[in-house]
Amino acid sequence: MHLHLRPPFTILKLVLLTLHLQLQPILTLSPCKTSCGTIPINYPFALEDGCGSPQFRHMFNCTTTELFFQTPSGSYKVQTIDYNKQTMTLYDPSMSTCSILQPHHDFIMTDIQSAIIPPSQDTVFVLLNCSIDSPILNHYKYLCFNFEGHTCDELYGGCNAFRVFHLLTNSSPPCCFTSYNTVKFMSMNILDCTHYTSVFNSDKLKGVGPLDWVYGIKLSFSLPDVGCESCKQSGGTCGFDTDTEGLLCLCSSFTNSTRECAGGSMISEGLNNAPWTKPLLVLLLVVLLHNMMGLL
Asked: Rounded to whole angstroms, how far apart are CA atoms 286 and 15?
């Protein structure tokens, strides 16, 4: 009598293989760039249209190694972005500093930019070589404030670039320490000042000479509360529809969702990667019971 052995557990092996594959980490490439040179690009900012928050759409440009913030008055190199403090610092190559005098230049932002990513409270704009007829020395003199005890004489005497103003008039021409709102609503021509500079971290500059000031512009921003966190937790990247500007959760270069990526995290390991894990476990249990019954 020949003993007929049952075929190997072919179905069982197939299920086990499928389950094994389901449990493997699913690695997907983010559809949005995450850096430009050494600057990390995180929400709400982005380089590609459709990534990040639509409020910051078309505001950034990346060369091979440098990130630039684009405004109507030009492109400004981004030096740092601090996502915890929600600040971004800019360098304006056309702005005068203590060591170099640049031609007349205005810093102009769009209305949306000045609303959602304005210069920070500790950024001070310094208007230099102003006429005695300047509106900020007359009707709008209240726009000028005391900047940590610093004076015009200190600027004109301590900075090589600004010393020329003192030499031309044999005196110290008026200057004004003010906020961004002043240069936002009045151009340099209206202000009747020939040059300006700006410094940030102004609250740390008491007793510090102008040679050691941090020149540049610090911007402050906030994160739009649009439910992006659930998208990130599911492994997606927050973006938006380029036509409607409605929120999208970008799951891969070819898959989008309105809220989160299906099946949990697409970049983490374990059971979260397997949207069909529970049904497979049930099927596995059924197959095991079937084969056990067949052996009895």
From this structure: 11
